[in-house]
Specification:
6-stranded mixed sheet; alpha+beta; 3 domains; 13 helices
Length: about 400
């Protein structure tokens, strides 16, 4: 791996901060020293290390990197001092000087308040079932304040002393999942301790809360695509639990898990059959069918698709994520990259070939780049050249 830019270093630093804290928690748990909270080991401190500030203020990242570099130099000269008797004094002096003069970023900038569940991992796996179940709960319990699209402009919200935030903005991605979980479980309070948002731990189960988080992310993706025509935050293809009813011998193995393969998902119905040949060495082709569909003809003896499945939940979850209503979804195609992130969408009435302009999730700098002539090859090249890698609440993004 070549570290060409400060962003690469920041990513490395953030991963290191995360791995360090997770490992620490695992060791505590393994030694039986961690308490349990909501079924997982509890973070024992009121704060955690966070890289969030580094993303906003690059000078903090630079300062931390240089401080770490100098500390490594100090350690090296200390080690030399131990081994090299004649130069010991000089080397010791050098280490002391380095340690003394190294400027570390303000501690406050690298710490964020933490909850017992800060490092909890969602057990729901961003599954279609969780998203659909989350939607039912959200409509009953949350939409009254937060509005169906998450923007929070309901009459109830507008009359509240503290307005709910826009859940369709990048907010959910800036928070750690475990910290969202905590807030929904125990509510939120203002400085004087008055409740600003109610807690739900008494009336909803832990799994309900994780499902709600999955739904809110899917919903924010759909709202974003309706508003700006793109996913402004990365969103994963939901985990689909249905089995392939028809599959090529190799794909049952390849599709489960989906990761590591680019997937083209075609939503087909009797009226919008996937008539074009789908066999393509660059992609795994999956047909998500609504009712009975006719399948594309196989090519030269090879099966034209890798998987055919029926799943109401998948259909509903993809409707939420793509911002297309369930009845208009047939004919839509979606592409994921090898890491499972949804990257491109083609609507039913768009009969052009795939091109780079179908990418809906990319770095802001290249968002408007449009290479319509390059076809699927240039789309895949562009997608692979810009993998999704950024962080959430100072936590590195994963698709689950
Ligand atoms: C009575 C109105 C109300 C209801 C009902 C409600 N919320 Fe909230 N919610 C709020 C308000 C107000 C805030 C902002 C609170 C603050 O900043 O102190 C908020 C904040 C949030 C946040 C942002 C947390 C953060 O990290 O800043 C999330 C996520 C959230 N609510 C999810 C939910 C979910 C999920 C439900 C349903 C289970 C729900 N809310 C029900 C009013 C409500």
């Amino acid at each position: 791996m070549i570290f060409s830019s400060l962003s690469d270093w920041i990513n490395l630093l953030l991963s290191a901060i995360q791995v360090l804290q997770e490992s620490f928690l695992h060791v505590l748990a393994a030694l039986g020293l961690a308490q349990s909270s909501h079924g997982q080991p509890a973070w024992p401190f009121s704060h955690r290390l966070s890289g969030e500030v580094m993303l906003i203020d690059r000078s903090v990242a630079r300062q931390l990197l240089s401080a770490l570099g100098w500390s490594a130099a100090a350690l090296l000269s200390f080690t030399i001092a131990l081994l090299w008797r004649r130069g010991r004094l000089a080397m010791l002096l050098i280490s002391v000087v380095i340690v003394f003069f190294t400027a570390w970023p303000d501690r406050q900038l690298l710490l964020a308040p933490a909850e017992a569940t800060s490092f909890h991992v969602s057990p729901s796996g961003f599954s279609a079932t969780a998203i659909v179940h989350g939607k039912q709960l959200y409509d009953q319990r949350c939409a009254g304040c937060h509005a169906a699209d998450g923007k929070g402009d309901t009459p109830l919200a507008l009359s509240a002393r503290v307005a709910p935030p826009n859940l369709a903005s990048g907010l959910l991605w800036r928070r750690a999942d475990g910290e969202l979980f905590w807030k929904i479980a125990y509510g939120m309070h203002d400085r004087r301790g008055a409740t600003t948002m109610p807690g739900f731990t008494g009336s909803l189960t832990d799994n309900d809360l994780w499902d709600l988080i999955d739904f809110m992310k899917a919903n924010a993706a759909g709202t974003s695509i309706r508003d700006i025509g793109a996913w402004d935050q990365p969103v994963a293809l939901p985990t689909l639990t249905s089995n392939c009813e028809k599959s090529s011998p190799s794909s049952a193995r390849l599709l489960n898990p989906w990761r590591g393969q680019r997937v083209r998902m075609v939503l087909a119905s009797a009226k919008q059959p996937a008539s074009f040949p789908l066999d393509d060495p660059r992609l795994r082709s999956v047909i998500l069918a609504d009712g009975a569909v006719s399948l594309p003809a196989s090519q030269a003896g090879a099966p034209a698709i890798d998987c055919l499945m029926h799943s109401d939940d998948a259909w509903k979850a993809l409707s939420i994520i793509t911002g297309v209503t369930v009845d208009k979804l047939a004919g839509t195609q979606l592409l994921t990259d090898r890491d499972g992130w949804l990257r491109a969408r083609k609507l039913a009435d768009d009969k052009d070939n795939w091109s780079e302009s179908d990418i809906l999730c990319r770095a802001p700098t290249t968002m408007n780049k449009d290479n319509a002539a390059g076809g699927l090859d240039s789309l895949i090249a562009a997608m692979d050249a810009e993998p999704v890698r950024f962080v959430k609440g100072g936590f590195v993004h994963t698709t689950q």
